[in-house]
Amino acid sequence: MALAANDPLLQPLDSTDEAAPPLTRAHNILDPGFDLTLRPMRYPQFYDMYRDAIRNTWTVEEIDFSDDLVDLDRKLVPAERHMVNRLVAFFATGDSIVSNNLVLNLYQHINSPEGRMFLSRQLYEEALHVQFYLTLLDNYIPDLEEREAAFAAVENIPSVARKAEFAFKWIGSINELHRLETREDRKRFLLNLICFAACIEGLFFFAAFAYVYFLRSKGLLNGLAAGTNWVFRDESGHMNFAFEVVNTVRAEEPDLFDEDLADSIRAMISEAIDCEYQFAQDVLSEGVAGMSLADTRQYLEFVADQRLVQLGLPRQFGVGNPFPFMELQDVQELSNFFERTVSAYQMGVTGEVAFDEDF
After folding, report:
1. Which of 115, 187, 204, 253 could form a disulfide with 110 if both were Cys (CB 3.0 to 4.6 A apart)?
2. Which of 211, 200, 219 is nearest to 292 (CA)?
3. CATH topology of domain 72-358
């Protein structure tokens, strides 16, 4: 049932409201336990992010793949088909890995009911992405044996397997960590969170988006691009939520953010670049006109610098964006010459999202 406009849950919070009961105890967001109290709201920014995510609701059934099938059959050259097959093979398992980390690690350690509301919504969105990629494979790869191989990419495609191993390493790093009791426990958790935000969602997936938008710049695979527009919005929200958690921890426990943690983050991001570059070597192995390995490496370094800045660290590479087609994106209204329908937010959106900040 829809909430009325005057419902108290929809009213802005006033931290100076004298009628609000005082907090019975002070706690930090990584303190062990499950705080259940939504009023007074300790972290309203996460509730706002949850509501913004709800406004970005979409379904796979809205996406029209009919033009894509024509493109795959008549327009794509073999090198581009190889690119697409590798992309959907990665997509087929990528979001399931993210979901596993949400369930196994993030939900139990982010001690904020507002934050857990967002994580619950994120889990739904990851499932939606899995459905989208499942639909891609079913439409794009008619051969059953080839499709089964794509679904098992983490076992039989080395470039995909390496990215999965990188993710599993960081999932496993805190699997046995059930309570964040010590300073080192919290740093281990932060590294897991940063890995999934900056490296997996913020680098692996954003690099994949570049291949999709490259094809769209050539007027190819409109359905894939339309679905990716929605996924991009979701992934941006997931990444921004994680970085806001990091910022919250930094404000509450600044001593955690020492040079040792910074060195670990830089090493992690460098490893992620190497993983993604190996995937690029595979994706572009048959020679895709208009995309070079050198430009792709520079693009990965450009994106990595954006992630470092978001984490409060200096840029490491100092390079520009080599892909002009990525600068043409407008995430508020992604309707252009190559799209057949407008992929705007169904219920409106507040705040600002800029592509140049993320890419």
Report:
1. 115
2. 211
3. Ribonucleotide Reductase, subunit A (1.10.620)
